[in-house]
Amino acid sequence: MTTWISHRGYAKSATENTGEAFDAAIDLGFEHLETDLRCSRDGHIVLCHDPDLARVAGSSLAIHQLTRKELSQQRLRGGEFLLFFDELLERYAHYRWILDIKPEQAQQTFNALEKLSADAAVARFLNQQARYLVWQNNHKQILTDVVADAFCLAREPECYRAGTAALLGLPGLGKIVKGQYYAVPPRLKGVPILNKNMVARFHQHGAHVIGYLPETAAQHEQALAAGVDELLTNHAPELLKAETRSASGF
C-alpha cells in the first residue's frame, strides 16, 4: 500500500509550511508530512523553503538575517505566521516527517538540532519519527554526528543515476542501495518514465521508490499504478479521486 506524504502541508487552503497548512493536510487524512528547515540569525529553526520571504510574504528579507522575534512578526500572504521547529515538536511530533535541511545555513541548523536533542523526547523524535534530506554529501556525516540514527533519503544525483539506470533496464549501474528511498517524478522533460518495470527494478535491489510531486490526477494514478512505495504530493487524495470520477463522467 502506498503511503501518501503531504509536501509542505496542504497549500491549497493555507500558505505552505505553516500550522494551518499542516492542519489542513492532517484533516485530509495525511499522517506523514514534509517540511523545510532553515535557521534564524539567533539560532532558531524555522520552517521555510526559500532563503527569503519574497514568495510567501512579499518581502525580500532573508531568513538567516532575522532573529526569531523579527521572523515571528512577519505576516505571510494568507495572514498566517511562520512556524518554528519547537512548535512543530509541540503540535505534530506524533506524525512522521521528512525534514529537508536547506544547505545555506545547514551548520547552524545542525547546531540547533543538537541543542534540542538534549531533551530525550526530542531525541526520540529526531531518531524515530523523522527522515532527512540533505543537499551536500558532507552534511550527512555532520547530521549523523548529531542524530545517531538519522536516515537520509537519497540525494538528487543519486536519484537521477539510479532512476536512469532502472529506466534503461540496467539497475546494476545505478548503484542502488538496499533499504534506500529514491524519488522519481512521473515525467522527465514531458516523457512518462514512472512505470511498473522501473519500480520493480528498484524493488529487486531491495530499494524503495517515492513518486515525486505528481501534479495532475493522471500523474498520481500513473505513480500508484507503477506501485510506488510512497507518494510525495502537493495535492489531496480525496480531491484527486473526485477529479478522476468527474473526468470519467461518474
UniProtKB/TrEMBL annotation:
Pfam families: GDPD. Residues 2-243 form the GP-PDE domain. One of its GO terms (biological process) is lipid metabolic process. GO terms for molecular function: phosphoric diester hydrolase activity. PROSITE patterns: GP_PDE. This is GP-PDE domain-containing protein. It comes from Aliidiomarina shirensis.
